[in-house]
Amino acid sequence: MSQSTAEVSEAEIAVHWQEENYVNPPDRFVAQANLTDKTVFDRFSLDNVPDCFKEYAELLHWYRPWDVTLDTSNPPFWRWFVGGRINVSYNCVDRHLAKHKNKTALHFVPEPEQEAIQHVTFQELYVRVNEVAALLRDGCGLKKGDRVTLHMPMVPELPITMLACARLGVIHSQVFSGFSGKATSDRIVDSESRVLITMDAYHRGGQLLDHKEKADVAVSEAEKEGVKVEKVLVWQRYPGRYSSETPLVGGRDFVMNEMLSAYRRRRVDPVEMPAEDPLFLMYTSGTTGRPKGCQHSTGGYLSYVAGTSRYIQDIHPEDVYWCMADIGWITGHSYIVYGPLALAASSVVYEGLPTYPDAGRPWRIAEELDVNIFHTSPTAIRALRRAGPDEPLKYNHHFKHMTTVGEPIEPAVWKWYYEVVGKGEAVIVDTWWQTENGGFLCSTVPALYPMKPGSAGPGVPGIHPIIYDEAGAEIPPRSGRAGNICIQNPWPGSFQTIWKDPDRFVQQYYARYCKDRSSRNWRDWPYMAGDGALQAADGYYRILGRIDDVINVAGHRLGTKEIESASLLVEEIAEAAVVPARDEIKGKVPDLYVSLKPGLAPSEDIRKRVEDSVVREIGAIARPRRVVIVPDMPKTRSGKIMRRVLGAISNNEDAGDISTLANPEIVDEIRKMKF
Ligand code: 6R9
After folding, report:
1. pLDDT at residue 9 above 50?
2. Which of 68, 140, 460, 502 is the most buried (most CB within 10 A)?
3. Residues lining ligand 1, CB < 6 A?
């Protein structure tokens, strides 16, 4: 872990992460669990890959069964369930009508507490998905393989739109609603979307935010890059009332709710999709300035999220399941929309923030809807713990199962989650995985393993991790030594490629530890996750943080290069470097160091413009904790910025060996600056 912005140092681990005691799952949980049969690990052994994953595919309805479970003819572009035909919308909606027509598919909790919770049954979901699909097909001319960018907040219209796209085989690319118009435009351009679907406004933290204004920026910026968005479809947060200050552009902008009246009760046959056709793109930050579009498949992806939702999330059709993530992130795609709905669960979609108007909100929602499976991130848990440590005990909610995802969770925070949020009644799974992976990679199987606070757990069934050192040698299993965690085998949830950039897909994830480039045997192609990890003697993995130029802020990935590029748009800036700084709530936050072009003097105005540029280019989530204008960057003699040294300054740590710096005096000079 010698790279520039490695998030967690060995010393830090030693201080913060002591070995913890095991906690057993409650008997009541085990008695009802979907997976209690230990032979699952034999069935899903390395030798049984790929056939073991048929078990997941068999949870779904296929129009035509597959001929080949795994095609390895073009490594590492693995192809799953080849020859099979399937539709995701049919599997998440239509097939549940026979038994669950009147059951709630989506509970929508608006932010204003005086607004009633909406309960969308599977029958209503079916009707609405069909109407939207008819509009997209017949009103917009969209067809299988076309891309559509969605920039939608957390409302039921988002999963409805996604499922309508899936019904047609249209590839959706949902952009997190907190991202800026410019960030949306980058994703429109890369995916060449002709249609943008958005909403006029949404609630967050007590405000009704104008969201449509971002669409105007997105469309005009995309046009500058040569991509013309022909239609902007605008959902109304309040049907019948347009809640944006931004005018609708004639001939381009259309109100969805009005257009839909022409498609009342229309039915659209689900398109029988080849298993390997893409279902969606999800852009994520990488090591370069441009986010990459992770392309996910139809059959393999849905099989994997259905299987892991059943066995790791322990979802039964009668459960009320609430994942607090945003659907704009992979967690929301896999574990709010596709996984739970494939299993006919009732899934909660909520608008707003967990801590607004107060830290009792999640527990009120859980009590009211009788949520029994709860899924959130360490950042949300830390924030809720700080804002209302005793709040959960005031409410009559009871969880059987709780999940944490997105970042490492400190044992003390885990304990609060277990004892106070879960009241000691719930099992917890700490799930490690990434946008690229589609679904969980490491976690305990909840009824089969004890929990260990602070550790994700072993690979989930069918996932076989391995840790390599920098030189490419395998670190002995269960040795407690840190290295780069990889997965030895393919699995059906994995992304298929980076949209329009297959070389980067191979380079970034497979090239480093590939044993033989000419081999068609998947055993020669371990997948490199880009995280540091160690495996303890008990077989549990502890994830240590990113080994590359990515910062995990509140469980969301930000590329340091993206932030640096945004700051370099300010004319006065000569150089920029972003490093992760520790934060009590968010885990990590970006600190941005910039230097000015020769002859210029630092000013508050420049500092402010840099900050604004980052927010405009990426979104408020990327706002640096600090923007520090430094007289010079700490540099090696060859001119490389030593980000490691800046990281040490940000975290008040010893900068270690600075003898290779060309300008070692700058370290003290920056430390003395008042930020
Ligand atoms: C699902 C998701 C992926 C990165 C990943 C790792 C970190 C995720 C974690 C975790 C420790 C966990 N990460 N889960 N670290 N423990 N349980 O978060 O996807 O947004 O792509 O982020 O998040 O560093 O590489 P994504």
Report:
1. no
2. 460
3. 284, 329-331, 405-408, 430-435, 456, 529-531, 543, 545-546, 552, 555-557
